[in-house]
Amino acid sequence: MGLPAVLPATRPTWSAPPSAAPPVSSAPGGSGPCDIYAAGGTPCVAAQSTVRALLGSYNGPLYQVRRASDGATRDIGVLAPGGFADAAAQDAFCAGTSCVITVVRDQSGHGNDLWYQGSDQVPGSSRSSPAKATSESLTAKGAKAYSLYINPGNSYWRDGHLTGVPTGAAPEGAYMVTSGTHVNGGCCFDYGNSETTRKADAAGAMDAINFGTECWFGGCSGSGPWVQADLEWGLYPGGSTSWNPNQRAFASKFVTAMLKNNGTSRFALKGGNAQSGGLTTLWNGALPGGYSPMRKQGAIVLGSGGDCCKPGGGANLSAGTFYEGAVVAGYPSDATDNAVQANITAAEYR
Known about the structure:
Helix content: under 10%
Low-confidence stretches: 3-29
Radius of gyration: 18 Å
């Protein structure tokens, strides 16, 4: 999200190359959210988590940490295929020093790893930095894990327009598990499709979930945090800038947030408690005026708005927590949404 800007004629040439990790399968009967999305015909094109594998067959790295004592790095993987993070490996590697999370690996096989803005892979402003690796620990199915705990100045990014992320008016869905207890009203705790230019290029240039307490157009009910859509040149609680009366706050410790957009006529917003229960549909209707067709560029942003964190520019102002999430090609069905929510609650976030 940001102010209008002129769309450059060229794309940046410094984006990181695709990961060397091989594609992973989505076998029938798999136990992760991306297995569910694939079975519904809307495969994951990016899948990130610091907590667990999002495919039943995934046995690769979840994220990388870098320690302060000597600058060494280590990828943190899973305890077993399709399982949970090996937090003990992080604890051993970071013992006696501090660590930051430099990159959250892509589990989809598309190589859409999210490097922190300010890294060699994603050059950023002098005020951009990686998130601390030990700000918050939790358990999932009784296994210890760490979150990606975003504070102002931290954010992650990837140019995925050539590696499967939907562009233009192509349909797209996304979800993330976040927290209602670590939020603010700064711009903008987003996860989803953003500009490859890292500039506010046009209405519809973004298609990202926003979670926070921003109330930019007035009329908001309560103090949030809310699940909204950052579509660029506007943060939307529903089909217009007018406050959507179906919106509700999600202040629980663990929150599921979902956005899906068919690219031409309609989008939907959903939210729920990530520990129990189903999803609440906050909006399922027309795109705002001026957003049809969508103009997605195919970058992925996590923790900031789209107009952020460039060399010589400003830094992210938002706070938020990221546990897991995925971007998918296509418009997921309601049945798929519900199955993903059931899978999340079965992970027993505590």
